[in-house]
Write the structure tokens for this entry.
Amino acid sequence: MKLKRIWLFVVPQLLLLSAFFAQSCGNGLFGTLTECGQSINPFEFAPLISCTPPSPTPGPPGPQVSSLSLCPAPSSSTSASPTPCPSFVATSIPVGGVVEFELVATLSDGTTADYTDAPTVLWSNSNPSVLAPAPTPSPSPGVYEGVCPGTANVSASVSSGVTSQQVSVSVTGSPPSGCPTASPSSSPTTAAQIRVETALQESPRLQWVFRAQPPIGTAILAPPETSTVYFVGGERMLYAVDSSGALLWSRSVAGPALALGANGTVYAETGASVVEAIERSGLTLWQAELEGEIVTLASENQGTVYAATTTALYSFNADGTLNWTIQGLQASAIAASPTGGVNVATIGGPVAGISGQGKQIWSFSPAGGFAGAIAVDQDGNVYAGSESGVLYALSPQGQLLWEVQTPAPVKAGPVIAPDGSVAFVADQLYVLSQSGMTLWQSPLIEPAIGNVVITATAQGVAVSELGGSVLSVAPATNSSTWLQINGAISALASGPSGELYLGSQQGYVYRVR
């Protein structure tokens, strides 16, 4: 194992290089570059501009969106300009019926355009238990199916802040089996207990869209102490984007593994066997060359960073000095503990606790082997799923606190919400209290073959299965909403102020608030 420390100094050559970039691309070396901030057609993907990555906030060239209007979809395609219909505010369908909308944008030059399928549009449905994205042949923006009797509000927004009118959709008819019940229970999870999901009072809005090379990786980092967001796009580029959606800097990496450290330090995989510490400005603090390919990274508040490779587990101090190495430990998931040390697991194998000195202090074998992810709460309690469908809660010493059985293997999570509740996806979405009691259970997420992504939010949890739809739930207020984009979602993250970030396989990152 070779350790390389890189000390960076501002030299005249760097100043000259910065001046060159400022003259040719619009700003300084690490600032937003205006050539890559030009407007783009939201329906096309242009090649990368040579000086920087693509536009942080895509929008139509020339005229901008002045207003949006939800309209009934035309019965047949037409080449004529669509007509806005702001007075269209209500419609109804039977249970099992489908309603299809057309999103009409009025531009600043007075013309109109069909924005229904634009990748820079966010669709919102306030009551997922009543109205859900139509599943066949594949979910499409603006197409919904009535699933249970009730009322839901549908709206759409673009990154400039323009939002359509809300259209109230009433779903009528007899409730089919599985519709929400009126009296949720606080007893442990059973398949029949589904909390009533009522409409949110205010529709989420799209604040900005950043376009990168597709796809966006599975991790989006939104550190609480800064407004910067980090993520990896296609062509193995790490992006740092500010709260307005403007590019701060970008640099090449070797893989999707990312972790956040103290003071906003980002740890990234910059070579097949290289972990690198990157400060907020994008400058390298240190590098370490490891043995084996990097699988995953984790960091704790004290600044210790852990790297799991195909052959070993490593621990480094914040300055890049090596703490210890455990050879032969092949972990597929790791989570640092706030009390020191790290928890590790291998798919189909056990979960173990490693002390800050690199010694194994406990081991636990889930029924059927480990599945999903590891989560650790602020008290050091460990949560892990299994192939047998059990979610386990363990003490910092590895003792079993409680377990909850589900009918299917754990597919995503667990994650810990700010209120301490625990969320995960097996056959459906479950949200549990710290004592293992059911707070929320929703059949609206039915994991298909493919990725399921989940994140904790300020209100509760957000989860997405394969496709462009996100279910956001708030157990404390007994509410939920559907968010939908035109594309498959690859990553979710929650920011420090309650904002939600969505990453797509088409190369877009969305900030929703």
